């Protein structure tokens, strides 16, 4: 149980692939103009992470070390192709919105890194859980970044949710304030770099405060003076 707690902490915060490892930044900064796009890409990445981690863990004893990286990439590409075909079949509008960034999940260093660093050395159950936590941590950063950019750029939240969740999700769309002209800095990739920098800075600040509180002040030793009577 302690191992699962550690994997949860590592994936969601301590070793978050987006905030700490700074992996997968290309789709993270390009697609997260809305919450819907961010959530769609995040869930796709999570599914690929789990599938590839489980598969790599199951075949780890049969793959020669010399060719393990090409094998891992082939496994990841297989799951990415499956996810893309499912999107085209059932969520075509979302697939069009995400565009080339679904196939680019194959080159996401976070997925290859977890396959090499963890899944290839651990049983499939722990590897599956590691994939869930790492994917969930990545997805949460995507959604947070997408929410901030969507609110700053268009004054809306959950715009286009029906692309991912169906027609019933049109009621989830919120207009927080009217925007006559969209704030292009927030919508375009330069705005994503700026917002991402603030998010990373906030995490570093929280970590610094936690470490400062964890350090106990040194105990002062008081000496008693003994006087002879």
UniProtKB/TrEMBL annotation:
One GO term of the biological process aspect: electron transport chain
Pfam family name, one: Rnf-Nqr
GO CC field: endomembrane system; plasma membrane
Predominant location category: membrane
UniProt subcellular location: Cell inner membrane; Endomembrane system
Protein's UniProt keywords contain Repressor: no
Classification via InterPro entries: NqrDE/RnfAE, RnfE
Broadest EC class assigned to this enzyme: translocase
EC number per UniProt: 7.-.-.-
Domain of life: Bacteria
Transmembrane segments: 38-59, 71-91, 97-115, 127-148, 183-202
Membrane topology value: Multi-pass membrane protein
Family (UniProt): Belongs to the NqrDE/RnfAE family.
Subunit field text: The complex is composed of six subunits: RnfA, RnfB, RnfC, RnfD, RnfE and RnfG.
Its biological purpose: Part of a membrane-bound complex that couples electron transfer with translocation of ions across the membrane.
Protein name: Ion-translocating oxidoreductase complex subunit E
């Amino acid at each position: 149980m302690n191992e699962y707690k550690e994997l949860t902490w590592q994936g969601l915060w301590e070793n978050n692939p987006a905030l700490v490892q700074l992996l997968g930044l290309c789709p993270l900064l390009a697609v997260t103009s809305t919450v819907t796009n961010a959530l769609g890409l995040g869930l796709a990445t999570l599914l690929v992470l789990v599938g590839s981690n489980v598969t790599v863990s199951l075949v780890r004893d049969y793959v020669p070390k010399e060719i393990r990286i090409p094998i891992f990439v082939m496994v990841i590409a297989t799951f990415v192709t499956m996810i893309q075909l499912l999107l085209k079949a059932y969520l075509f509008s979302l697939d069009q919105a995400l565009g080339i960034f679904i196939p680019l999940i194959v080159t996401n260093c976070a997925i290859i890194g977890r396959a090499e660093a963890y899944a290839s050395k651990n049983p499939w159950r722990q590897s599956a859980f590691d994939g869930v936590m790492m994917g969930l941590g990545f997805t949460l950063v995507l959604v947070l970044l997408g929410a901030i950019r969507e609110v700053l750029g268009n004054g809306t939240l959950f715009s286009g949710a029906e692309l991912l969740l169906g027609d019933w999700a049109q009621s989830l769309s919120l207009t927080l304030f009217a925007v006559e002209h969209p704030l292009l800095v927030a919508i375009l990739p330069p705005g994503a770099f700026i917002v991402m920098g603030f998010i990373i800075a906030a995490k570093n600040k929280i970590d610094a405060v936690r470490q400062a509180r964890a350090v106990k002040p040194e105990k002062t030793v008081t000496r008693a003076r003994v006087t002879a009577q």
